Amino acid sequence: MSTVFDIPTAELRRRRSAKWTTYPSDVLPLPVAEMDVRLAPGIAAALHEAVERGDTGYAGDVTELVEAFRGFALRRWGWKVEPDGVATCADVGVGVVEVLRRLIRPGDGVLIMPPVYPSFYPWLRESGARTVAVPLIDRERGGRLDLDGIERALADGTRVVLLCHPHNPFGRVHTAEELRALAELARTYGAIVLSDEIHAPLTHTGQGFDPYLTVSDAAAETGIAFTSASKAFNVAGLKCALIIADGRRDLLGEMPEELPWGVGHLGLIASIAAFSGEDAWLERLAASLAANVALLRDRLAEALPGVTFPEPRASYLAWLDFRALGLGDDPAAEFLARARVALGSGPAFGLHGEGHARFNFGCSPELIDEAVTRMARALRS
Length: 381
Prior knowledge:
Its cofactor is pyridoxal 5'-phosphate. It holds the Pfam family Aminotran_1_2. It comes from Bailinhaonella thermotolerans. By secondary structure, this protein is of the alpha/beta class. 40% of the residues lie in helices and 13% in strands. The protein folds into two domains: 9-38 and 279-380, Alpha-Beta Complex (Aspartate Aminotransferase, domain 1); 44-277, 3-Layer(aba) Sandwich (Aspartate Aminotransferase, domain 2). The chain has 14 helices and twelve strands. The strands form three sheets. The protein has a seven-stranded mixed beta sheet with strand order 2-8-7-6-5-3-4, with helices on both faces. The protein has a three-stranded antiparallel beta sheet with strand order 9-12-11, with helices on one face. A two-stranded parallel ribbon has the order 1-10. The longest helix is centred in the last third of the chain and has 25 residues, at 279-303. The protein is globular and about 60 Å long.
């Protein structure tokens, strides 16, 4: 099967998105969570048709989007989403902040599990929350929930858990058993679990995924999920996300009246196309990501022995451990300066990020090879 990452670098450099404009042209940009793919055919066609008819106004009725996502969730995960349990917003971050504002008072604790997606930290600040960090354990093997630590935090009064599922930057898919245990803790202590599931459609070949709300009655009672087509289908700039509740649908009714007006109309159109008919494209993407993981591991073993990363089971991000090379707390800064390779800064992910960097392998095999070659050359010189 051919790779979906077949766009020449010269063509990519004509893009005006953050990935390709944040750094000077001599830098290989691998930190920003965008993929170097062409749009899935159905999405491209739907957007072209909208532009041709001048259909670029405000987003309207979202019924078709809700139905498209319900079909997608049922096909991929066996998840029966109730239509009255879905709300829309511009993106997952906006949705999380608005829900947090209705769950906490300023200064209340919200539990996160570092190292974790750096945007969690400004989301918590914006909502007025205090960060309660319970790091993942067994991080060298991809990480898992510290259920004892989570229980201690809940017993101390924390009432909201912000879960990253699949976990960014490890690409770890939490097991149904872990999620059920988390849900029981949430029910016991009267807590709410906010599950960021934006990377869920990007699980790798052979890897299952259990949405938090589906694992038990306790999870349905205590959870709110957030998702979008943005990461899996590379349409983050078009702005469209979903908030999904079951037992806590009351919170959806409390959302501000203007929240759905933040949805981009082209994002709505793209998301309907993505969830309705691009399953085969996702399968091609999953195969391409698996090949890129293998390539990255082989090239690091050859050129930078001692640099390791836990096997990602979802998404296009690898959490590289550079500690054996003695590059200090922020290897990404070293490689940007010395190799002209931009990686995600490990310390930005919070506790235990020191000595690490995030590598976006959602790109061509040639870019992966060139990045590793440059890093190795910089260390030799």
